[in-house]
Amino acid sequence: MSMTPEQFVEAIGTGNIIHNSGDLFGDHLRAVQRVLKEWGEDEELQLAGLFHSIYGTEGFQDFQLSFDRRGDIKKLIGQRAEFCAFCNCVMDRTALDATLSDGPGKHSIHARPDVAGGAHIPLTDSQFSDLITVHLADWLEQVQREAAKVNERHGWMKPGDAWGYRRQAYRSMAEMLGGKALECYESVFAHETEQTKHISQDFTPKLAAPVVPKIYVQ
């Protein structure tokens, strides 16, 4: 019998990897899927949330499913969901932040040189909306846990520093999406104290070597 997407995520070992936020990687993936369900997003986008960092991202590289498996993932969750997850994984996040101010029909990102040679990736308006929805849900699901601790690999040297990570970009995404996404953003960031609201980190630091070896699942 074929696996469900949820069973696949478990079978490839995500329950054995610690995510940046301190939770197990698999638990974080399922939590992002739940956030999108709570926002009323359709099943395809919920599945994009479940797979949002399956190939590794600029901010999390301790687990990387081989790109050779993209065809399998498309069959499992659909082309729309897989493309969204793929973009979230390979993109240079500064490119996403830069295109937030572009008008309809003009959105694009580029991949990081280390994973896809810096390839230019044009996005339709619906693909852009999908990407910022999943990307925002990912951060809102974990930022409180990140902000409660130190993460030297990301340059967050004291508790609270994580609140400032790409602060304006995430705020812009929430305002663009509105509705449940904006409500969630405001609810999460209501937990930030005045002492950290001046912090702003507009870049994603180059990650140091992982504490444990990366896992590339074929």
TrEMBL record:
Pfam families: DUF6817 (PF20680). Residues 9-93 form the DUF6817 domain. This is DUF6817 domain-containing protein. It comes from Coccomyxa viridis.
